[in-house]
Amino acid sequence: MTDLPEYYFRVRENGAVAFRVDTENRQRRIEMDQIAVINIKNGEVKPHGDHALSESDLAAISDWMAERQALLARRDIDDIHRAVDYLNITTQWVQSKADDEQLENVTDALLLAMHDLRSVLVRKKADRLIKARERAQD
Question: What highest taxon heads this organism's lineage (predicted)?
Fold first, then answer.
């Protein structure tokens, strides 16, 4: 049997449930003792029940949180790159395949979503340019 990690994190919507993994028992069974509930969004770590978290527990939880936040950030940007691909595929569909009824069904929603996105992107781009110009003048 391969060595199991000392901790296991069951991912949930806003974080995870942290378990300490134990295989050093008389029956040689895998036991998982819940030690904490983690909220990744606000960084809160709540010990489970009366459990007191050790320094190694807190270090493992902190490491997991950092790795999880990095993974979620990579997924976010990957989702945005996929959205760009979907926009391109949608453009090709509109140009080459969509019939009038299909276009009538999606045009207003697409136009509003694209207008909203464009407005936010233009505003954010202007903010970045202004900040860059201010930094250059300092």
Answer: Bacteria
User: What are 35-63's pLDDT values in tens digits?
Assistant: 999 999 999 999 999 989 999 999 999 99
* Cβ contact 65:41 at 8 Å: no
Residue 47's beta-bridge partner residues? 36
Give the three-state DSSP class for 129: helix
How many other β-carbons are positioned within 10 Å of the β-carbon of residue 115? 10
What SS3 state is found at 38? strand
| Strands of 15-22's sheet in order across | 7-12, 15-22, 31-39, 44-47
Gap between the Cα atoms of 68 and 37, Å rounded:
14
* pLDDT tens figures, 68-120: 999 999 999 999 999 999 999 999 999 999 999 999 999 999 999 999 999 99
Using alpha carbons, select from 32, 36, 52 the residue that is nearest to residue 44. Answer: 36
